[in-house]
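Dear support,

I submitted the protein below through the web form. The confirmation email said the job was done, but the results page showed an empty box. After a refresh the structure appeared. I'm attaching both so you can tell me whether what I see now is the final result or a partial one.
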Amino acid sequence: MLKSVERLNHILLIILNLVYVNFLWILFTILGLGIFGIGPSTYALVSICRQWVRSNNSLPVFKTFWKYYKESFKESVIISWIYLIGGTVLIVDLMHVANWYVRVALFLISFIYLLSLVYIFPIMAHYNWKGILFKMKMSLLFGFSCLQYSLVLFLVTGVIYWAATTFFPGVLTFLGISFLFYLITWTANQVFTRMETMDAKEEIEDKSIYHNAKENWDEKTKGIKISRC
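What the results page shows now:
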């Protein structure tokens, strides 16, 4: 009985913290005038979620959020602009292009775009890699090398948010952003752990996380290349 109460208390605490950081994300995005605030706010949110996923639950939420918000401000703003511009272009093209073949190509590009978008902020929070283009490249490699995780994430997220929109629309006001990025961060953490485990097992062969991701990418695209020949 006591364990059940403690478990329930833990779940409620997580929900309250998600509501809190959801509010902070909205607040700091607005304070940053939207285009200057959305990137740093998202980076801060993902960084906190990463700490929670890795069982560090004793963080002072506001202080930690503010710390991460300032930590990679410039880089977060630039990355958010790149993805916002790219997403806007894709949406406009999908709305106006009538050619079926072009639309199929745009849907494929949009899927690649989403894969990269899912992993870019978790990569920023998890690794100390340098260079925006390198991080974007790695986000795409991670997305494809562990495609099964990405597809399950899309499916689960779609079902949960469809159910929330249909039956409990008010919940999205309090958890819409934070819960989404908690799911993304949890999934990304599984992918990173898998890659790091592979790297540790193959340390003798001097393989890095980048090479493991690249090999998985090559394996998944090998069949496509063969079929084209």
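Response: this is the final, complete result; the empty box was a page-load delay. The chain has one domain: 2-221.
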